[in-house]
């Protein structure tokens, strides 16, 4: 059966149209997210914040609001930043965050340039590709469309054009049809930057976009955009922090225990509540790996 072609290069017209829409979309990102969150260090014990003896870990991520974004001062902040900073402090580490090309995460881990990567990163389906700490939150991978679209189910995606971020679970699901409810689509656009998804849909360049449900909810809240999210998820996943598969230091195990403590003592619920009105869906991880 013919597989949907993964678009590596889009025509100049498409690229320019998406880029022009994107400029408008990102203009208020730092400001709007800044109102909804605070520094990752807020909420930590003073001894944890001031302890210069904590070992430093290099942590990589791309921009994925509200999990990871930059504030008005250029600092890397967000829900995942707050969660990981707290968890690492509990096991004697402090993070040094840096933004990376997400497609290069594996080579950066293998070379030792990064100790771990995070940022709404799905463990599910990648269990044997990394050493994982987590899951610390639950999430759904979903498809979003324009409210006036005639797409209501996954089956309606047949012969449609869909956009995703490259190297993500939606890309894998739509390319390889690992979800039996996903039909043969016409074409898949894979963007290196997730921020291009909304402009591509708004400009009518694609019929649907797929990503974490939380990212769509955040975009609706911050920019007044309205999506219709399909009831059928592509996948229900657990989010984790990934270390190289050959990393034998055991930090992943200690970090997993710290996440479990934070779930049990209410820290995780407190942090998620700063970003989402209803934290309960993110804390329901029964059956997730």
From TrEMBL:
Keyword Nucleotide-binding applies: no
Keyword terms: Signal
Superkingdom of the source species: Bacteria
Cross-referenced Pfam families: SBP_bac_3
SUPFAM superfamilies xrefs: Periplasmic binding protein-like II
Start and end residues of each Solute-binding protein family 3/N-terminal domain: 56-279
PANTHER family on file: MEMBRANE-BOUND LYTIC MUREIN TRANSGLYCOSYLASE F
UniProt protein name: Histidine-binding periplasmic protein
Species this protein is from: Collinsella aerofaciens
